[in-house]
Design brief:
The chain has one helix at residues 100-103, and strands at 4-8, 21-27, 34-40, 50-56, 69-75, 90-96, 109-116. It has 117 residues and is mostly beta strands. The strands form two sheets. The chain has a four-stranded antiparallel beta sheet with strand order 1-6-3-4, with no helix packed on it.
Length: 117
């Protein structure tokens, strides 16, 4: 039952400033909400200096739809970091949902995670 999962790569941060999309393939048998958060470690001594999350549903672009594989091409422009922070040292990707545990669904699969232009 997914509450959240974090993929931590802050020891090898990604400079995504030139990327236009974040791609994720997601499979969930049911549910209505899938959240994606990026955490940037460009602060003093590599500390967190910005994080931003977005929620995807059937009504968003891209749309998260349960019941099959969903290819999410998320524009990087959807991630507006506070204070002019740019995604130049991404070190965490946090995936979560608020409704899967309530539905008692034990399965969310994520594959093919990458940034591209």
């Amino acid at each position: 039952t997914l509450n959240f999962v974090g993929i931590d790569f802050h020891n090898h941060p990604i400079d995504a400033t030139g990327m236009t999309y974040l791609h994720l393939d997601v499979f969930a048998p049911q549910g209505v909400l899938f959240s994606v958060k990026l955490v940037n470690f460009g602060g003093v001594n590599g500390s967190v200096n910005g994080q931003i999350g977005i929620d995807l549903t059937a009504g968003t672009t891209p749309a998260f739809t349960p019941g099959g594989w969903c290819q999410l091409e998320i524009p990087m422009s959807a991630f507006v970091f506070p204070g002019g922070v740019t995604p130049n040292r991404l070190g965490q990707l946090v995936l979560s949902t608020s409704d899967i545990p309530a539905l008692n669904t034990p399965l969310v699969l994520v594959d093919n995670i990458y940034w591209h232009r």
